[in-house]
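anyone seen this seq b4? input:
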Amino acid sequence: MIGGVMRFRLLWLGMLGLLGVYGLSGCVKANIIFGQNQIDDGLTKIVKIDTLTPVLSTLFVDSVPTSGKGVAMVGGYDDPYFGSVKTRTYFEFAPPPVTNLGIGYYYDSLVLYVVPNKYYYGDTTQPMDFYAEQIASQMLFPPTNYSFYNNDSFAVRSPVLGHVRSVLRPSVVDTVYIRLNDSLGQTFFNLMKNNSPTITNADEFLVYFPGIRISSGYGANPQLVYGYKDSVFMKLWYHTSDLNRSINAMTFKFTQSSYQFMEVQNTPIAPLTKFQRGYSSVVRQIYSTDPDFNHLVYVDPLLGYSAKVEFPYLRNMLLQDTTMRIITKAELILRPLVPSYSTQYLLPPSLVAESTDYSNEPSSTVSTGVLTLDYGTSNTQYTFDITSYLQEQLNDPTSTAYKRGLIIAPSSTYFYSSLNRFVFGDKDYQSQYTSPTYYQSEVILYYVSTKNTL
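predicted toks r here
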């Protein structure tokens, strides 16, 4: 496993930095020091420090809201870092407009239409099973909640309404057609033919037919997940018995987007089993230095995992007798463990760094990490500009400044719509594949300071 090592390296702006300090220092006498070497030019002191180290941890929240996000997935896979993952999605449907069906109209079929959105995770050369099952009771929010979460579920009735096995092409928009149980289709047709309020009244229809759950079944994971549009719909096809034999359809459209949600089942493996579950929105935190975590950090937001980067030793700079402290540039570079990602186990297209404190609740976005992707090499990395953030922390005299940090997770665009994940190590992670310095995660800091000697 390729290790990412987190460390600080202090690099200096040569003559440009010196000229800037000359202008600011005036006639103040100071020293120039590089590491242990002191140079006295009568004006400026510049100190090179290479012991400033960030602290890394994995954050976990048991429940992630997935309702009303317009996101739907089906499938599952066995992840070597996160364990078994299985997704399934719940939908409600509205009845079609009232249709007058007299003598001479006959039922043909009831079909569920599922349109993939080109998102996939896993091996797309494998076939995928799509199962449609009827939800047993109407989906209602709990009294104190207005969302459904990744760990929510509703019982379904048996038998299965319909099933199809397909091989999809992610690069094109295929449609999955699932023919549903003819008994259900004929019942819908008869209700419409009799103008029953069970199907002409939307509220009564939801009680009678609470919706459909789409899954990949109950067997082994297919090692594949497909995303699809939330605009799932059913069509009831029927025909006339006249000589023209005209074909017609009634459409049951997806409705109640706030109730549509995705269940994400995760059976974690070590060390993620160490997180306590069943605490809803309580954020749990385990540092990379925990012996079970082996100096690794895990990010997969739909499973509840994000990363935190803290800079508790930054305040040590404040204890130095300096009159000016300027961070001219700071970049946080995170490099994933090379064995952890591939064309099947994809990385998030982008990550964001959001400011936080000891509560571990995200506040404002500090920087967006741009992904440079080069499979199998140390050139794959996320780069964050954290110049302003570190300068603010350096200049903050309060005693709680050291408790702040950055939460690292995918941007809002991908947070709820992707299972792409990210695993990286701290400065002490030891790679079994190559030298730890080859796959470094690091902060590159350009820093200038002056010191009065009057």
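The longest strand covers residues 83-93. The chain has two domains: 5-62+277-450, 72-266. kinda curious what u guys think
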